[in-house]
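User: Is it possible to get a 3D structure for a protein together with its bound compound? The compound here is zinc ion. I've pasted both below.
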Amino acid sequence: MSDPASDCKYCGGDCPNQPEGSEHLCDGYAGDIDGLYGDTQSLLEAAAEKARALSATSTEVQEIMLVMLDAWRLYFLAHESLVPCIEECSEEDTERDMIRKIVVESMRETATKPFTTDDLIDGLTARCVAFIQEHAAPEGEGEDADPV
Ligand SMILES: [Zn+2]
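Assistant: Yes, that's possible. Here is the predicted structure of the complex:
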């Protein structure tokens, strides 16, 4: 049973499936003399460096990242508020978890469907702002604040 994808890029043999340091490795594979298997670590470092430079120099990217940050915070805030609602409709942990996943999955699916800019703006300005004001405890007015 030969898997072409795992054939050695140097000799066409079985080198990638041999244990490290095996005497059956061809010289090409053993030393990766032409870099065919790449240096993943240096690739990762180069990518991280470019990502840093991208966010440091582009105001467009900075703005995009801040929008992503707001969107994530809003998502987590909404998700946190969903949990007690689910607890009211089920007393069983496994079922609660299933209900949560079904709700989240159905929203994720809806989110990937087409929408209009107006829909989003209406949702953000009316629904989301009101939701944040109602659910987020501003710093310094936590549990001690009197409920209105
Ligand atoms: Zn080989």
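Residues 8, 10-11, 13, 15, 26, 28-29 surround zinc ion (CB under 6 Å). The radius of gyration is 26 Å.
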